[in-house]
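Progress against Task 2.4 (sequence-to-structure conversion) is shown through the following example record, which the project officer requested during the mid-term review.
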Amino acid sequence: MKYSKYLFLCLAVLTSSQVIAQHDTSSVVKNYPTPVIDSAKQRDAIDFLLKIIKKDTSIKSRLHAKKLVFSVVPALGLSLTTGFVADITANMAFYTSADHANNLSAVDLETVYDTKNQKIFASRSEVWYDQNKYKLITDVRWEAYPIDTYGLGSATTNATVDPLDYNYLRLYGTFFKKIKDDFYAGLGYDLDHHYNITQSGIVNNQVSDYTKYGFHPSSTSSGLVLNLLFDNRRNSINPLNGGCASVIYRDNLTFLGSDSHWQELSMDFRRYFRVSQNNYNVIALWGISAFTKGNVPYLDLPYTASDTYNNSGRGYPEQRFRGKDELYLEGEFRFGILKNGLLGGVMFVNGESFTGLNGGFQKIAPATGTGVRIKINKHSDTNVCIDYAYGLNSRGIFVNLGEDF
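C-alpha coordinates generated for the chain above:
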Protein backbone atom coordinates (compact mmCIF):
# COMPACT_ATOMS: atom_id res chain seq x y z
CA MET A 1 0.00 0.00 0.00
CA LYS A 2 1.11 3.45 -0.70
CA TYR A 3 0.12 5.17 2.56
CA SER A 4 3.27 6.87 3.86
CA LYS A 5 4.02 7.03 7.54
CA TYR A 6 5.83 10.06 8.92
CA LEU A 7 8.89 9.26 11.04
CA PHE A 8 8.38 5.51 10.72
CA LEU A 9 11.22 4.21 12.86
CA CYS A 10 11.10 0.45 12.42
CA LEU A 11 9.74 -2.17 10.06
CA ALA A 12 9.16 -5.03 12.46
CA VAL A 13 8.19 -7.90 10.17
CA LEU A 14 8.53 -8.42 6.43
CA THR A 15 6.57 -11.26 4.86
CA SER A 16 5.16 -12.11 1.46
CA SER A 17 3.01 -14.95 0.23
CA GLN A 18 2.39 -15.79 -3.37
CA VAL A 19 -1.09 -17.25 -3.68
CA ILE A 20 -0.94 -18.04 -7.38
CA ALA A 21 2.32 -17.19 -9.08
CA GLN A 22 2.72 -15.55 -12.43
CA HIS A 23 5.00 -17.53 -14.75
CA ASP A 24 8.63 -16.45 -14.80
CA THR A 25 9.72 -16.59 -18.42
CA SER A 26 8.66 -18.10 -21.74
CA SER A 27 12.03 -19.84 -22.03
CA VAL A 28 11.13 -22.11 -19.10
CA VAL A 29 7.58 -23.08 -19.95
CA LYS A 30 6.63 -23.39 -23.62
CA ASN A 31 3.64 -21.56 -25.12
CA TYR A 32 3.63 -18.90 -22.38
CA PRO A 33 3.85 -15.29 -23.53
CA THR A 34 6.79 -13.22 -22.33
CA PRO A 35 5.82 -11.47 -19.09
CA VAL A 36 6.23 -7.78 -18.31
CA ILE A 37 8.95 -8.54 -15.76
CA ASP A 38 11.41 -11.31 -16.64
CA SER A 39 11.88 -12.63 -13.13
CA ALA A 40 13.84 -15.79 -14.00
CA LYS A 41 17.09 -14.39 -12.64
CA GLN A 42 15.54 -12.13 -10.03
CA ARG A 43 15.35 -12.83 -6.31
CA ASP A 44 12.90 -11.48 -3.78
CA ALA A 45 12.00 -11.75 -0.11
CA ILE A 46 10.05 -14.96 -0.74
CA ASP A 47 13.16 -16.66 -2.15
CA PHE A 48 15.17 -15.44 0.83
CA LEU A 49 12.64 -16.74 3.37
CA LEU A 50 12.27 -20.08 1.56
CA LYS A 51 16.04 -20.47 1.61
CA ILE A 52 16.14 -19.84 5.37
CA ILE A 53 13.56 -22.55 6.03
CA LYS A 54 15.27 -24.78 3.44
CA LYS A 55 12.39 -24.96 0.98
CA ASP A 56 12.78 -25.38 -2.78
CA THR A 57 13.71 -21.99 -4.28
CA SER A 58 14.15 -23.11 -7.88
CA ILE A 59 12.40 -21.28 -10.69
CA LYS A 60 10.14 -24.23 -11.47
CA SER A 61 8.96 -24.46 -7.85
CA ARG A 62 7.11 -21.15 -8.31
CA LEU A 63 5.75 -21.83 -11.81
CA HIS A 64 2.11 -22.76 -11.38
CA ALA A 65 -1.03 -21.00 -12.49
CA LYS A 66 -0.40 -17.44 -13.40
CA LYS A 67 -3.16 -15.20 -12.19
CA LEU A 68 -2.59 -13.58 -8.80
CA VAL A 69 0.41 -12.34 -6.81
CA PHE A 70 -0.21 -11.41 -3.18
CA SER A 71 2.15 -9.44 -0.92
CA VAL A 72 1.69 -8.62 2.77
CA VAL A 73 3.76 -6.36 5.03
CA PRO A 74 2.93 -6.18 8.75
CA ALA A 75 4.85 -3.35 10.41
CA LEU A 76 5.38 -1.47 13.65
CA GLY A 77 6.49 2.12 13.78
CA LEU A 78 6.70 5.37 15.70
CA SER A 79 5.48 8.78 14.56
CA LEU A 80 5.82 12.09 16.34
CA THR A 81 2.20 12.90 15.42
CA THR A 82 0.53 9.52 15.94
CA GLY A 83 2.63 7.65 18.51
CA PHE A 84 3.29 3.91 18.11
CA VAL A 85 1.66 2.49 14.99
CA ALA A 86 0.58 -1.04 14.03
CA ASP A 87 0.03 -1.43 10.31
CA ILE A 88 -0.89 -4.27 7.97
CA THR A 89 -0.58 -3.55 4.26
CA ALA A 90 -1.50 -5.93 1.45
CA ASN A 91 -1.08 -5.68 -2.30
CA MET A 92 -2.71 -8.00 -4.84
CA ALA A 93 -1.53 -7.91 -8.46
CA PHE A 94 -3.22 -9.91 -11.20
CA TYR A 95 -4.20 -10.11 -14.85
CA THR A 96 -7.88 -10.27 -15.83
CA SER A 97 -7.07 -12.30 -18.94
CA ALA A 98 -5.34 -15.70 -19.12
CA ASP A 99 -2.97 -14.55 -21.87
CA HIS A 100 -1.83 -11.47 -19.87
CA ALA A 101 -2.94 -9.20 -22.72
CA ASN A 102 -4.36 -6.73 -20.22
CA ASN A 103 -2.29 -4.38 -18.11
CA LEU A 104 -1.43 -5.55 -14.60
CA SER A 105 -4.33 -4.86 -12.22
CA ALA A 106 -3.76 -4.10 -8.54
CA VAL A 107 -5.77 -3.92 -5.32
CA ASP A 108 -4.30 -2.38 -2.16
CA LEU A 109 -5.64 -2.87 1.37
CA GLU A 110 -4.45 -1.25 4.60
CA THR A 111 -5.45 -1.18 8.24
CA VAL A 112 -3.74 1.11 10.76
CA TYR A 113 -4.05 1.63 14.51
CA ASP A 114 -1.91 3.81 16.78
CA THR A 115 -1.66 4.84 20.40
CA LYS A 116 -3.06 8.32 19.70
CA ASN A 117 -6.32 6.80 18.45
CA GLN A 118 -5.70 7.15 14.72
CA LYS A 119 -7.51 4.35 12.91
CA ILE A 120 -7.54 3.78 9.16
CA PHE A 121 -9.08 1.31 6.78
CA ALA A 122 -8.34 1.94 3.12
CA SER A 123 -8.90 -0.01 -0.08
CA ARG A 124 -7.80 1.19 -3.51
CA SER A 125 -8.04 -0.69 -6.78
CA GLU A 126 -7.09 -0.32 -10.44
CA VAL A 127 -8.58 -3.09 -12.56
CA TRP A 128 -8.26 -3.50 -16.35
CA TYR A 129 -10.78 -5.36 -18.53
CA ASP A 130 -11.25 -6.66 -22.07
CA GLN A 131 -7.86 -6.09 -23.73
CA ASN A 132 -7.46 -2.79 -21.83
CA LYS A 133 -10.64 -1.37 -23.34
CA TYR A 134 -12.05 -0.63 -19.91
CA LYS A 135 -10.65 0.29 -16.52
CA LEU A 136 -12.20 0.72 -13.05
CA ILE A 137 -10.56 2.78 -10.30
CA THR A 138 -11.94 2.82 -6.75
CA ASP A 139 -10.85 4.45 -3.50
CA VAL A 140 -12.73 3.59 -0.28
CA ARG A 141 -11.61 4.78 3.16
CA TRP A 142 -12.78 5.20 6.72
CA GLU A 143 -10.55 7.10 9.11
CA ALA A 144 -10.57 8.32 12.70
CA TYR A 145 -7.91 10.93 12.22
CA PRO A 146 -6.27 13.17 14.81
CA ILE A 147 -3.61 15.18 12.99
CA ASP A 148 -1.68 18.44 13.19
CA THR A 149 -2.52 21.12 10.63
CA TYR A 150 -0.72 24.44 10.13
CA GLY A 151 -3.01 26.78 8.24
CA LEU A 152 -3.12 27.87 4.62
CA GLY A 153 -0.17 28.38 2.28
CA SER A 154 3.35 26.99 2.01
CA ALA A 155 4.90 29.72 4.18
CA THR A 156 3.33 28.54 7.45
CA THR A 157 5.60 27.66 10.36
CA ASN A 158 5.49 25.15 13.20
CA ALA A 159 4.32 27.98 15.49
CA THR A 160 0.90 27.87 13.78
CA VAL A 161 0.22 24.19 14.50
CA ASP A 162 -3.52 23.59 14.95
CA PRO A 163 -4.36 20.00 16.00
CA LEU A 164 -7.58 18.64 14.52
CA ASP A 165 -9.55 15.48 15.21
CA TYR A 166 -12.22 14.11 12.88
CA ASN A 167 -13.79 11.06 11.27
CA TYR A 168 -13.66 10.69 7.51
CA LEU A 169 -15.50 8.61 4.93
CA ARG A 170 -14.38 8.54 1.29
CA LEU A 171 -16.16 6.77 -1.58
CA TYR A 172 -14.57 7.29 -5.02
CA GLY A 173 -15.22 5.36 -8.21
CA THR A 174 -14.47 6.10 -11.87
CA PHE A 175 -15.09 3.86 -14.89
CA PHE A 176 -12.97 4.42 -18.01
CA LYS A 177 -13.49 3.50 -21.65
CA LYS A 178 -10.70 3.44 -24.21
CA ILE A 179 -10.94 6.18 -26.85
CA LYS A 180 -7.85 5.08 -28.78
CA ASP A 181 -4.54 3.42 -27.91
CA ASP A 182 -3.62 4.34 -24.30
CA PHE A 183 -6.20 7.16 -24.18
CA TYR A 184 -9.27 6.86 -21.94
CA ALA A 185 -12.27 8.89 -20.86
CA GLY A 186 -13.79 8.24 -17.46
CA LEU A 187 -16.97 9.20 -15.64
CA GLY A 188 -17.26 8.79 -11.89
CA TYR A 189 -18.58 9.89 -8.54
CA ASP A 190 -16.63 11.19 -5.50
CA LEU A 191 -17.88 11.57 -1.93
CA ASP A 192 -15.89 13.14 0.93
CA HIS A 193 -17.64 13.28 4.30
CA HIS A 194 -15.84 14.68 7.38
CA TYR A 195 -17.67 14.61 10.71
CA ASN A 196 -17.07 15.00 14.45
CA ILE A 197 -14.49 17.69 13.62
CA THR A 198 -12.88 19.33 16.64
CA GLN A 199 -10.14 21.97 16.68
CA SER A 200 -7.66 22.43 19.53
CA GLY A 201 -6.52 25.85 18.33
CA ILE A 202 -3.13 27.58 18.25
CA VAL A 203 -1.19 28.28 21.42
CA ASN A 204 -1.27 31.81 22.88
CA ASN A 205 -4.91 32.13 21.78
CA GLN A 206 -4.02 32.99 18.20
CA VAL A 207 -6.87 32.70 15.70
CA SER A 208 -6.26 29.75 13.34
CA ASP A 209 -6.58 29.92 9.57
CA TYR A 210 -9.31 27.28 9.87
CA THR A 211 -11.37 29.65 12.04
CA LYS A 212 -10.74 32.55 9.66
CA TYR A 213 -11.63 30.35 6.68
CA GLY A 214 -14.83 29.13 8.34
CA PHE A 215 -14.84 26.33 10.89
CA HIS A 216 -17.66 23.74 10.72
CA PRO A 217 -18.07 20.55 12.78
CA SER A 218 -18.82 18.56 9.62
CA SER A 219 -18.62 18.85 5.84
CA THR A 220 -19.84 16.89 2.83
CA SER A 221 -18.62 17.16 -0.73
CA SER A 222 -20.49 15.07 -3.29
CA GLY A 223 -19.78 15.43 -6.97
CA LEU A 224 -19.50 14.03 -10.46
CA VAL A 225 -16.08 13.47 -11.99
CA LEU A 226 -14.86 13.64 -15.58
CA ASN A 227 -11.39 12.16 -16.07
CA LEU A 228 -9.28 12.20 -19.23
CA LEU A 229 -6.42 9.71 -18.97
CA PHE A 230 -3.35 8.67 -20.93
CA ASP A 231 -1.58 5.62 -19.55
CA ASN A 232 0.91 3.39 -21.38
CA ARG A 233 2.52 1.82 -18.28
CA ARG A 234 2.25 -1.96 -18.24
CA ASN A 235 2.88 -2.17 -14.49
CA SER A 236 1.69 0.73 -12.34
CA ILE A 237 3.21 -0.81 -9.17
CA ASN A 238 6.76 -0.25 -10.42
CA PRO A 239 6.90 1.34 -13.90
CA LEU A 240 10.09 0.86 -15.90
CA ASN A 241 9.15 3.15 -18.77
CA GLY A 242 6.20 4.95 -20.34
CA GLY A 243 4.03 7.49 -18.60
CA CYS A 244 0.67 8.55 -17.30
CA ALA A 245 -1.23 11.84 -17.58
CA SER A 246 -4.56 12.50 -15.88
CA VAL A 247 -6.83 15.55 -16.05
CA ILE A 248 -9.74 15.47 -13.60
CA TYR A 249 -12.67 17.88 -13.37
CA ARG A 250 -14.86 17.47 -10.29
CA ASP A 251 -18.16 19.32 -9.88
CA ASN A 252 -19.68 19.11 -6.39
CA LEU A 253 -23.43 19.65 -6.52
CA THR A 254 -25.86 20.46 -3.71
CA PHE A 255 -28.60 18.23 -5.14
CA LEU A 256 -26.18 15.30 -4.72
CA GLY A 257 -25.76 16.15 -1.03
CA SER A 258 -22.81 18.54 -1.19
CA ASP A 259 -22.82 21.34 1.40
CA SER A 260 -21.84 23.83 -1.29
CA HIS A 261 -21.34 24.05 -5.03
CA TRP A 262 -17.64 24.03 -5.82
CA GLN A 263 -15.30 22.74 -8.51
CA GLU A 264 -11.78 21.39 -8.77
CA LEU A 265 -9.50 20.92 -11.77
CA SER A 266 -6.52 18.69 -11.01
CA MET A 267 -3.74 17.33 -13.22
CA ASP A 268 -1.24 14.55 -12.56
CA PHE A 269 1.66 13.83 -14.91
CA ARG A 270 4.21 11.01 -14.57
CA ARG A 271 7.03 9.95 -16.90
CA TYR A 272 9.54 7.10 -16.59
CA PHE A 273 12.82 6.71 -18.47
CA ARG A 274 14.63 3.38 -18.31
CA VAL A 275 18.32 4.25 -18.40
CA SER A 276 19.44 0.99 -20.05
CA GLN A 277 17.88 -2.24 -21.23
CA ASN A 278 20.64 -4.06 -19.34
CA ASN A 279 19.43 -2.94 -15.90
CA TYR A 280 16.38 -1.66 -14.05
CA ASN A 281 17.68 1.86 -13.39
CA VAL A 282 14.92 4.41 -13.95
CA ILE A 283 14.57 8.20 -13.91
CA ALA A 284 11.02 9.09 -12.77
CA LEU A 285 9.33 12.50 -12.92
CA TRP A 286 6.05 13.52 -11.26
CA GLY A 287 4.05 16.74 -11.47
CA ILE A 288 0.76 17.70 -9.78
CA SER A 289 -1.43 20.80 -10.02
CA ALA A 290 -4.81 21.45 -8.43
CA PHE A 291 -7.06 24.49 -8.69
CA THR A 292 -10.36 24.99 -6.86
CA LYS A 293 -13.26 27.41 -7.24
CA GLY A 294 -16.13 28.11 -4.88
CA ASN A 295 -16.70 27.51 -1.18
CA VAL A 296 -14.48 24.47 -0.69
CA PRO A 297 -14.63 22.79 2.76
CA TYR A 298 -11.35 23.32 4.60
CA LEU A 299 -10.48 19.62 4.86
CA ASP A 300 -11.18 19.09 1.14
CA LEU A 301 -8.65 21.71 0.04
CA PRO A 302 -5.49 20.38 -1.66
CA TYR A 303 -2.76 19.57 0.87
CA THR A 304 0.57 17.79 1.24
CA ALA A 305 0.07 14.11 0.31
CA SER A 306 -3.51 14.62 -0.89
CA ASP A 307 -2.81 12.48 -3.97
CA THR A 308 -4.57 9.12 -4.24
CA TYR A 309 -1.91 7.17 -2.36
CA ASN A 310 -0.84 9.99 0.00
CA ASN A 311 2.75 9.92 -1.24
CA SER A 312 3.57 13.45 -2.41
CA GLY A 313 5.74 15.69 -0.26
CA ARG A 314 8.13 13.15 1.27
CA GLY A 315 10.03 15.13 3.89
CA TYR A 316 6.88 16.59 5.44
CA PRO A 317 3.99 15.05 7.43
CA GLU A 318 0.67 14.62 5.71
CA GLN A 319 -1.35 17.88 5.61
CA ARG A 320 1.72 19.96 6.52
CA PHE A 321 0.74 22.51 3.83
CA ARG A 322 -2.72 23.33 2.48
CA GLY A 323 -4.31 25.85 0.12
CA LYS A 324 -7.04 26.43 -2.43
CA ASP A 325 -4.48 25.78 -5.19
CA GLU A 326 -1.39 23.56 -5.37
CA LEU A 327 1.71 23.07 -7.54
CA TYR A 328 4.02 20.09 -7.01
CA LEU A 329 7.06 18.61 -8.78
CA GLU A 330 9.26 15.61 -7.94
CA GLY A 331 12.14 13.78 -9.56
CA GLU A 332 13.58 10.41 -8.54
CA PHE A 333 16.45 8.18 -9.66
CA ARG A 334 15.86 4.46 -8.97
CA PHE A 335 18.84 2.13 -9.24
CA GLY A 336 19.79 -1.45 -8.50
CA ILE A 337 22.31 -2.38 -5.81
CA LEU A 338 22.34 -6.18 -6.12
CA LYS A 339 22.35 -7.80 -9.57
CA ASN A 340 19.66 -10.28 -8.50
CA GLY A 341 17.21 -7.40 -7.92
CA LEU A 342 16.67 -8.08 -4.21
CA LEU A 343 18.08 -4.72 -3.12
CA GLY A 344 17.94 -1.30 -4.77
CA GLY A 345 18.07 2.37 -3.90
CA VAL A 346 16.64 5.78 -4.78
CA MET A 347 17.54 9.45 -4.58
CA PHE A 348 14.82 12.09 -4.92
CA VAL A 349 14.00 15.78 -4.65
CA ASN A 350 10.62 17.53 -4.57
CA GLY A 351 9.04 20.94 -4.11
CA GLU A 352 5.51 22.15 -3.41
CA SER A 353 3.71 25.49 -3.26
CA PHE A 354 0.22 26.39 -2.01
CA THR A 355 -1.88 29.52 -1.99
CA GLY A 356 -2.38 31.39 1.29
CA LEU A 357 -5.51 32.61 3.06
CA ASN A 358 -5.61 35.75 0.91
CA GLY A 359 -4.73 33.98 -2.34
CA GLY A 360 -1.49 33.86 -4.32
CA PHE A 361 1.10 31.10 -4.36
CA GLN A 362 3.63 31.34 -1.55
CA LYS A 363 7.23 30.15 -1.40
CA ILE A 364 8.29 26.70 -2.58
CA ALA A 365 8.77 24.18 0.24
CA PRO A 366 11.59 21.86 -0.93
CA ALA A 367 12.56 18.42 0.31
CA THR A 368 15.09 15.78 -0.65
CA GLY A 369 16.08 12.33 0.44
CA THR A 370 17.30 8.84 -0.31
CA GLY A 371 16.14 5.33 0.40
CA VAL A 372 16.40 1.60 -0.16
CA ARG A 373 14.18 -0.85 -2.03
CA ILE A 374 13.69 -4.47 -0.95
CA LYS A 375 12.08 -6.74 -3.56
CA ILE A 376 9.19 -8.41 -1.79
CA ASN A 377 7.68 -10.05 -4.88
CA LYS A 378 9.59 -10.34 -8.16
CA HIS A 379 6.56 -11.45 -10.18
CA SER A 380 4.65 -8.20 -9.67
CA ASP A 381 7.94 -6.26 -9.22
CA THR A 382 6.70 -5.01 -5.83
CA ASN A 383 9.22 -3.38 -3.49
CA VAL A 384 9.11 -2.39 0.13
CA CYS A 385 10.29 1.22 0.05
CA ILE A 386 12.06 2.75 3.05
CA ASP A 387 13.05 6.39 2.57
CA TYR A 388 14.66 9.09 4.70
CA ALA A 389 13.64 12.59 3.64
CA TYR A 390 14.03 16.07 5.06
CA GLY A 391 12.50 19.45 4.26
CA LEU A 392 12.29 22.80 6.02
CA ASN A 393 12.37 22.08 9.77
CA SER A 394 10.98 18.63 9.04
CA ARG A 395 12.44 15.19 8.50
CA GLY A 396 11.42 11.59 8.84
CA ILE A 397 11.38 8.01 7.60
CA PHE A 398 8.66 6.99 5.13
CA VAL A 399 7.64 3.40 4.39
CA ASN A 400 5.62 2.16 1.41
CA LEU A 401 4.60 -1.07 -0.27
CA GLY A 402 5.20 -0.25 -3.93
CA GLU A 403 6.90 2.77 -5.47
CA ASP A 404 5.70 6.21 -4.40
CA PHE A 405 4.70 7.06 -7.98
